[in-house]
Input
Amino acid sequence: MHKDRLTCPSNRIREVLARLRRAYEGAPSTLATGEGDHARRLVLVRGSNTEPILRVVAEAPSEQAATRLLTTVRSQVTNWIDAR
Output
């Protein structure tokens, strides 16, 4: 498991999370059947209620896989936060 937090203006959190949902619309949900390699991977991105940040948590069978997941999602989210 790897965790990170990204600074995001509070008024942009909903927009960034909406873009993330659209980008991964066809991805397996957390209610996966447990079959296949992707069913054992999870990325959680949520806005804080008390700070202007997004928390990102990635879980995978190996440290390397969790790092790749976190890096990929963090890069996308950072681009959306920076986009005006």
Observations:
- The two ends are 31 Å apart (CA to CA).
- The chain has two helices and three strands.
- The chain has a mean pLDDT of 86.
